[in-house]
Amino acid sequence: MKRIILSWILLAILITGIAWLPYLLVQQDLRQEANDPQIQLAEDSAASLNAGQTPQQIVAAATTSNAGSKVDIAKSLVPYIVIYDTTGKPVASSASLNGQDPSIPAGIFADVRKNGEDRISWQPPSDVRSAIIVTQYKDGFVMAGRSLREVEKREDNIEQFTLIAWLVLLVVALIDVIIIFWQDLRLKRA
Description:
Beta-Lactamase
């Protein structure tokens, strides 16, 4: 009986790695790809601001895809942009959250001053999550973001599939180990 349990535990460890490593790789790929539109939007906007465009011009260009109105980040999947001054105060925005221009924690601005850019998952209220990129330009900061709602649905689907496959493989491995040891025991008795 001890050999059965030990054999199954070793197989379970192997199965766990085989099942969950691909999940982890796919989940990270989905999450990193969620940043791609914002990287371009933030970097291009910062370059345009440094070249002389005003924050209002940048935001006006960004809102053309949303019929000129602000994106409600709690409801929309449309990418958005917020431009902040050097103190972190919003000066122009294509987004709103609860009727206000979105404000991000001051620590993000400190990190951007130090590292030039920050890429994070931002969760202002508990039911809103965005992938945001914050970068610096000569007169402040540019934040580009978009909802993670659809990405997280995909992640959840992959996680559920992986969990089911993992459990099935564990049960199959246990049955297989029991059958092998039962047959081995029968051969020894014969």
